[in-house]
Design a protein that fits this description.
heterodimer, A: 114 residues, mainly beta, 55% strand, globular, B: mainly beta, six-stranded mixed beta sheet, four-stranded antiparallel beta sheet
């Protein structure tokens, strides 16, 4: 009954590598989101998308980019990984008319950059 | 700008008792949604309950209820008859209404709830 799938649960990458985090949802949702979660800082929005090929910056987009070529898939790209990007990354999706729907989250990817 | 404040980093409750997790918010939008999520140690965030800013009654979902006090801008989560499985981190979130294309959410820092047997 998995609805939002993140490709990796744990990931270890080296500084300077290009990193791809994949997220796929099977609920035909228009909206998709990438958050990072750090202790004491809660969840912070990196990027979101409300349609195919549409993307908007969140609160902390620096060092990240995204891709949404198909409705079900939303990829987060770390162009050149750095140690301060070590974090838990959470993908979420929701239908439109956003204010009345909660998110469905993936299980998260814990990324360590060494 | 929207802001969510959860002032309780950690809470303890005895099994079978009720517990209230505090949440206050700040927004200039008249129309918004308030949400609570649960994050067990496994890491996956689970949507628990929703309250709309124009809803007249407090939301309830099973053992979860939301004590919504609009004038005070508070949206506290009440868990009745706590169970050991309720031990988790709980996040309060608010979702803006006017940007109906995306409806991005702002989250609080979370409250860690521990249920004691």
């Amino acid at each position: 009954d998995v609805k939002v799938t993140q490709s990796s649960r744990y990931l270890v990458k080296r500084t300077g590598e290009k990193v791809f985090l994949e997220c796929v949802q099977d609920m035909d949702h228009e909206n998709m989101f990438w958050y990072r979660q750090d202790p004491g800082l809660g969840l912070r929005l990196i990027y979101f998308s409300y349609d195919v090929k549409m993307k908007e910056k969140g609160d902390i987009p620096e060092g990240y980019s995204v891709s949404r070529e198909k409705k079900e898939r939303f990829s987060l790209i770390l162009e050149s990984a750095s140690t301060n990007q070590t974090s838990m990354y959470l993908c979420a999706s929701s239908p439109p008319l956003g204010r009345i729907y909660g998110y469905t989250f993936g299980s998260g990817t814990r990324l360590t950059v060494v | 700008a929207q802001k969510i404040t959860q002032t309780q980093p950690g809470m303890f409750v005895q099994e079978k008792e009720a517990v209230t997790l505090d949440c206050t918010y700040d927004t200039s939008d008249p129309s918004y949604g308030l949400f609570w999520y649960k994050q067990p140690s496994s890491g996956e965030m689970i949507f628990l309950i929703y309250q709309g800013s124009y809803d007249q009654q407090n939301a309830t979902e099973g053992r979860y209820s939301l004590n919504f006090q609009k004038a005070r801008k508070s949206a506290n989560l009440v868990i009745s008859a706590s169970q050991l499985g309720d031990s988790a981190m709980y996040f309060c979130a608010m979702r803006e209404a006017y940007n109906t294309n995306a409806g991005k959410s702002t989250f609080g820092d979370g409250t860690t709830l521990t249920v004691k047997p």
